[in-house]
Write a structure and sequence with these properties.
- The protein has 246 residues and is mainly beta.
- The protein is built from three helices and 18 strands.
- The strands form four sheets. Strands 9, 11, 13, 14, 16, 17 and 18 form a seven-stranded mixed beta sheet that branches. Strands 1, 2, 5 and 8 form a four-stranded mixed beta sheet that branches. Strands 4-3-6-7 form a four-stranded antiparallel beta sheet, with no helix packed on it.
- The longest helix is centred in the first third of the chain and has 17 residues.
- It starts with 5 loop residues before the first helix and ends in a 5-residue tail after the last helix.
Length: 246
């Protein structure tokens, strides 16, 4: 991984030289510099708490906070395995409970890390805790301006059995490609990725919906909510014309 700034790297030999000077044994002086950036999607995230933990005990070894540039740095870290945990200071993350990133690292040299808090992807339809009589419903979400593709995940809510796990999807709606079971409850979520493959968006709270027997409704209203959306109209035309689904 590339360093954050070339200027910071110039200080690494000096720091390690100081460590060596005060260390009685070179074998005991395997201490390194761990630095990186924390971003909110593609923007630097200021004042995020970054902790280095013992992975065996979860004991916090040391804590720093990111600068306005999103940068953080740990000095004189001994060689070994660590968990690095970053806590988001953003209000909307806190609305979903304490939201953090955890990554396991093995430190054997000076290391740079780039960590990203994704923006929330807003799910639109099917609504959370809703019912539908459509066995191949349309999943609809709002666009993420930084994303070029999405990963769609759909699974049964009770057993977490995957129904769909489709990466590289470039639309903001997805028509389920197999019949869902009447009486079953399903959960779905979306992740968004930019052109570099960085996850810039994700669902913070999955939506659940149940499939039920269709009793009555408006023609073309495939989810039986009394409204016909543009996506539902397109799907109805596809069914009538026999066109392939997107």
């Amino acid at each position: 991984m590339e360093s954050i700034t070339n200027s910071k790297k110039l200080f690494v030999p000096i720091i390690l030289a100081i460590c060596t000077a005060f260390c009685p044994s070179t074998a005991n002086c395997a201490e390194y510099l761990l630095m990186g950036t924390v971003s909110y999607s593609q923007s630097p995230l200021h004042n995020a708490k970054v902790q280095l933990e013992n992975p065996a005990t979860s004991e916090v070894i040391t804590t720093v906070y990111t600068e306005s540039s999103g940068e953080f740095c740990f000095f004189f870290i001994e060689e070994g395995q660590y968990d690095i945990v970053v806590w988001s200071p953003l209000d909307y993350h806190l609305d979903y409970g304490t939201y953090s990133i955890r990554e396991s690292i093995t430190l054997t040299d000076d290391t740079d890390l780039d960590l990203y808090f994704p923006k929330p992807v807003t799910l639109v339809k099917p609504y959370d805790d809703s019912n539908t009589c459509d066995t191949t419903p349309v999943l609809l979400w709002r666009v993420n301006d930084e994303a070029v593709e999405y990963t769609v995940q759909l699974y049964t809510a009770s057993t977490r059995e995957p129904i769909a796990n489709e990466p590289g999807y470039d639309k903001t709606f997805y028509i389920v490609r197999q019949d869902l079971s009447v009486g079953e409850t399903y959960a779905w979520q979306i992740s968004a990725f930019d052109s570099s493959g960085i996850r810039v968006g994700m669902t913070l709270d999955e939506f659940e919906f149940s499939v039920e027997q269709c009793i009555s409704g408006v023609a073309g209203d495939v989810d039986n909510d009394g409204k016909i959306t543009l996506i539902e109209a397109i799907k109805a035309l596809q069914i009538v014309s026999g066109a392939d689904e997107p």
